[in-house]
Amino acid sequence: MVERSAPLPYPSGWFCVGRLRELAPGRLRTVRLMGEDVVLYRTRRGAVRAVGPHCPHLGAHFGAGGTVRGEELVCPFHGFAFGLDGSCTGSPDGVRFRGGLAGRHLRERDGMLFVWAGAPDGGDPSWELPPAVGVRPLAWWSGEEPTHPQEVMENIVDFRHVRVLHGLDTREAAPPEVAGPLFTVHQRTTARFPGLGPVSLEQPVTLAGLGLMHLEVELPQVGGTLWLWVLPTPLAPWRTRVCVAAAATVPVPGGRSVRAVDRAASWAALRATVRIIGQDRVVLAHKRYLAQPRLVPGERSIGLFRRWAGQFYPGFHSEAVPGFRFEASPESGVMD
Ligand code: FES
Ligand SMILES: [Fe+2]
């Protein structure tokens, strides 16, 4: 008998652990990812690394008094130092030991830092994040939600809730496209803007695993572009930090882009997105994940999304949870 409310385990993939600007050269900080600490540090020359928190010598936590000295990470307990490749490079009396830090795979995209999570102990990445867009977020928000990254991401294919809960006229413009760890949703929103009347916006939304949702909106009426990122990071079972980042370019008369205008547009887009997340909050906080939902016509993409998401649970017994049945070729994406 399959539990209709089987909980979801932690997914594998790339998850955002903050921004590069939060990590000045010569500093370190501890972040939380899937019930564990990860220590991020940035050397004086600017190299960024992510490592397991405990020193391999006698287990001290680098985040509790560790320092960055030049290009090395130094443990607070006995002063062993570690180089960028994780190897032990010295100590106050010159002794070294073989072996070194438990490194975590780290990527930077558009000023955001992502750490790979896969079992056990992080593991090695089985796929790469899409390339950087080439713009830096100008507005940023984060909040903690009692939910799971898959539940946050599933919202994007749940068009019925967009109309009912958020009151937006958003429709699916074409079926989603699946390409390995990428899932692209094609949606069209009709909205009214002051002075412009009803405007129809096409917004392909790309998910790169369950940790990165990216949306680029062309605004032909003003000749601008808006970029949004929604980044759910699992902190603990059913506890997720959701970061939202926004960037915009809005040309002013003369065709120039003015930083203050771009920033104001970015914050406006961010506020609108955070308001939508706020509307979801009450539902997400109390809903239960149903492995066998009663999908109705028009909700085919939810089933397709769940089948695609199944690839991020290696070792999870997919046959135990029918919503997760994941066949060898996710590209086929046919719903039962
Ligand atoms: S525990 Fe880190 S140097 Fe000894
Ligand atoms: Fe929503």
Would you give an account of this structure?
Helices cover 15% and strands 36% of the residues. By secondary structure, it is α+β, with helices and mostly antiparallel strands. It has two domains: 17-117, Rieske [2Fe-2S] iron-sulphur domain (Rieske Iron-sulfur Protein, 3-layer Sandwich); 139-286, Naphthalene 1,2-dioxygenase Alpha Subunit, Chain A, domain 1 (Alpha-Beta Complex), CATH 3.90.380.10. The strands form four sheets. It has a seven-stranded antiparallel sheet with strand order 12-18-17-16-15-14-13. Residues 55, 57-60, 75, 77-78, 80 line the site of FE2/S2 (inorganic) cluster (FES).
Structure classification: alpha+beta
- CATH class division of the largest domain: Alpha Beta
**Proper CATH architecture of the largest domain:** Alpha-Beta Complex
Bound molecules: FE2/S2 (inorganic) cluster, fe (ii) ion
Average pLDDT, all residues: 89
The CATH topology assignment of the largest domain is: Naphthalene 1,2-dioxygenase Alpha Subunit, Chain A, domain 1
Q: Which ranges are low-confidence, i.e. pLDDT below 50, for 5 or more consecutive residues? A: 1-5, 317-336
Count of domain modules = 2
Q: Per DSSP, what share of the residues sits in E-state strands of 2 or more residues?
A: 35-45%
Could you estimate the helical fraction of the residues in percent?
10-25%
Distance between the termini: 19 Å
Strand order in space, largest sheet: 12-18-17-16-15-14-13
Sheet having the most strands: 7 strands, antiparallel
Summed up, the helix count is: 4
Radius of gyration: 22 Å
Shape: globular
What is the fourth-level CATH superfamily of the largest domain?
Naphthalene 1,2-dioxygenase Alpha Subunit, Chain A, domain 1
Query: N-to-C SSE series?
Result: EEEEEEEEEEEEHHEEEEEEHH
Q: Based on DSSP secondary structure assignment, what is the total number of beta strands?
A: 18
